[in-house]
Amino acid sequence: MACCSRDSSDELPHRKPRGCTDILWLLLFIAFLFLLIFIASFAFVYGNPLRLLNGYDTFGNTCGTSKNEKIGNLSLSGLDTIDKSFLFYLDIKDVRKTMKLCVKKCPDHNLNTFHDIEKFYKDTGSKLCRYDFNFNEVRDKRLSEQDIANTITLPLGPCPPLPVYLSDPVLHRCIPKPVKELSSQVINSLYDVLNSWDALEQILADLYASWKEILALSFLSFVLSLIMVAILHMLASVVAWIFMLIVSIAAVGGTTYLWWTYVDINKHLNKTPDEQMLAESVRNEHAFLLYSVIATVFTVIILLLVIVMRKRIRFLAALFEDSASCLGDIPALFIQPLITFIALLAFFAFWISVIVCLATSTYPGVKPLHPYLDFQQVTETQTNARSAQLNISLKDFKSE
């Protein structure tokens, strides 16, 4: 046998030509991917996270935004409410059926007369009446207080029933402070509306409200990681001590902060009457108690590990020196964490955006409305089969 020859037994056995496998599952994956793209597109087109945070008025306008779209023939829909980020209930005794308006500021004192409402509007620019209501028309007619009470200050507008109580913004809703004139049942109904949100909606609202802080902390963690890598490269011999010290301080500090937050929430709830207690605050109390206990357990474990590992600090120092040498020989390894960080940040940002928009992609419903008594004419148009719409013609009330 020649040196360049080969035995026939060395030849590879005959193999079938390779082809695509799992075609069915590939098609299912592609179909699932297109479905996710469709859902994300639907969420971004119809979603509005501000509906969770600020709420929307009777006419479908989301408070605190300039991108409200016109809804059917409603003349007061599609308004610019960028400077009106608070939701005001005209009749606090029946918040589920009364008219709701976006206002610039909640009442900061009791308003006992119609002229007090007008003065509050002139002083603060916050209009507690319908958007198209004109105070000058009422002043020119010189109506008596009884006529105003019968035709203007009504649960369905155009102005709120008197008196209007001092209110505080709670979740961007104007909620009156408890007074003797308001029964506990009224206060309970107000907080029942706030507590009627699903836990998921409240979580998503918190995420949308704090997305800037979350993004800033993400970049801060990335910068701290780069600093740790730089320290690892330059001070490999002492980086083990630095790492254990930073981890210990962070664990103790984080646990202390969690316990302090829990105690602060607990004290606040103990001072809050039961009828004014938000379910979200109660859940926060339980959540922070659970987080604090878990963090305490992990902190104890970390401190015990640090105490044990301090006797093997030389081994850790040698390990970090080898790691620093490897990073020095292959600097391209620094790129991989950067790519991973960008990919994960983009994925979670996109995922949270889709979830938040999807939770707010509902179209504001339109219900039949019994209008207030106008001076001359109130006409109601019959709706089509898809939705009910109300067309109120106002001849005496003109926009200012």
**Got a strand count?**
4
Task: Please give the largest β-sheet.
Answer: 2 strands, antiparallel
* Helix and strand sequence: HHEEHHHEEHHHHHHH
Task: Tell me the quaternary state.
Answer: single chain
Taken as a percent bin, the fraction of beta residues is under 5%
Percent range for helical residues?
A: 40-55%
Overall number of domains: 2
How would you describe this structure to a colleague?
The chain has two domains: 52-196, no CATH class; 204-359, no CATH class. Helix 7 packs across helix 12 and helix 9 packs antiparallel against helix 10 (279-309). The longest helix has 33 residues, at 239-271. The chain is mainly alpha-helical. Helix content is 52%, strand content 4%. The protein is built from twelve helices and four strands; from the N terminus they run H-H-E-E-H-H-H-E-E-H-H-H-H-H-H-H. It has a two-stranded antiparallel ribbon.
List the helices and strands and how they pair.
Elements: H1 23-46, H2 50-53, E1 86-89, E2 100-103, H3 114-124, H4 135-141, H5 145-151, E3 167-170, E4 173-176, H6 184-195, H7 199-209, H8 211-234, H9 239-271, H10 279-309, H11 313-329, H12 335-359
Antiparallel strand pairs: 1-2, 3-4
Salient structural properties:
400 residues, mainly alpha, 2 domains, two-stranded antiparallel ribbon, 12 helices, 4 strands, 52% helix, disordered C terminus
Short summary of the structure?
It is found in: Cell membrane; Membrane. The chain has 400 residues and is mainly α.
